[in-house]
Amino acid sequence: MARELNKSKGILKNKGSVSSASTERHAPNPREVAVKHAHIIHSRRQIEDQIADSIIELSKFPTTRDSFYDAPNPAPADAETFKNQVRLYQPSDYDDLIEERNANGLCGYTLCPNLRSRVTGGGTFKILNYGRRDFNIIPSRELEKWCSQLCAKRAMYVKVQLNETAAWERAGIASIHIELYEEDTSSTVSDATTQLQKDVENMKIEALEKSAQNAQSLALERGDAIENGKTSKRSVKLTIREKPAKAPTAPSLDLDSQAHLVMEGYKTTFDPKSDAVNQDEQKTSSRDVIRE
Question: pTM for this one?
Fold first, then answer.
């Protein structure tokens, strides 16, 4: 019993107990996870409901039906509401808006107060601009969506600015703006043109100044004097003298008649003694060959 009491105890905890405690501490609460996902689904559903309500509202546009306003020049309040609500649309939502307006008998372009056109005669397709360069064959159903081809262009101009990304992923982006086909941008264009002209003039002035500096540096390298910003060229006196002509030398005569021994400027030489010894050796070697 005394031995058990005197036995030292370890200060480190059991690994199993530590791991179980850490997992219990870091384990997510299922209720919190479920509530978080429920909030996300609810926010997405809210945005989808807003888009559905917006389609119903825009299907009755424009609210201001006055002779002063038309499709190319809509009422400012209607145009602003239309752009703010359409900015989160997907292309499929915009197609639903066009179909909803057609069901009400209106032109597919939201800011147009006119009724949609009706194609006379039967047939699934309609021939347009026969005999012209812009000849085309279009389904009758597509022609009946609009009151004119200009309204079709206005509607498609808005549609190409829409994004396929889900609306809840773009809801917090404030930089998304929709532009209309015939929106007045003359003031912006004029300001941009004026600024561009100023930039071109400044570039020309900088080019002239740089060329003048290059000319001055070149004059300094030549040694020209510079007075009042202008270079004065230095005069140099030149004297032209003719080089005296020399009489052609006659070719040297080869008195030894050994010109045939010269090859590329090198003359071969022969030793008569060594040549005679070589001839005797050749003769003796030929005799030994004949005897054998």
Answer: 0.53
